[in-house]
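Encode chain A's predicted structure.
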Amino acid sequence: MTKLIGVYGASGFGREVMPLARAQYPDAECVFVDDGANDKELNGYPILSFAKFCEYQANDKKVSIAIANSTVREKLAEKLRSESIEEINIVAGNSVILDAVNMAPGAILCPFVTLTSNIKIGKSFHANIYSYVAHDCVIGDFVTFAPSAKCNGNVHIEDHAYIGTGAVIKQGTPEKPLVIGKGAVIGMGAVVTKSVAPGEVVVGNPAKPLEKK
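Encoded structure for chain A:
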């Protein structure tokens, strides 16, 4: 076998990503990579530890990190770099990518994701099913969009931010982009109408900081 594709993570999201990887690389052998799995196979695919993946005889090895936790994702990306293993983009065949989209390695675009035009996206971006990013947005590293997250134009989202299921981020302007700070969490169904501070958790419509009890 000359080409080996690993989906890092044999949990729920990894199981969703594997068919996308198989479709994108039909001539490769596809395996799960998971150091905590008890089983040796899942959905017909072998499960290998990272050490076994590295030892596997293949001329070309590539990995997609299908781990929801962005901090873990960053650590695993560094682990791949230390072994000179390429981190790849997995893009569903029915996703839509328009003009001038600059996307760093490690992205996962699930089915029905849309990226419009003039967008810059950092490393290891996860865009779950039906989510979208509109024009003139800047997305940092290790950002996660849950299903149906909606990011309108002229929004800057900093590293490790999490945009919850069904959340909507209002459009900014070229002169004053709306900013979602580093590590911020946008709650499920939140409607974000103004910038969110780094590390802040916001919920509701309009979105407001979550009150600590």
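The helical segments are 12-24, 50-55, 70-82.
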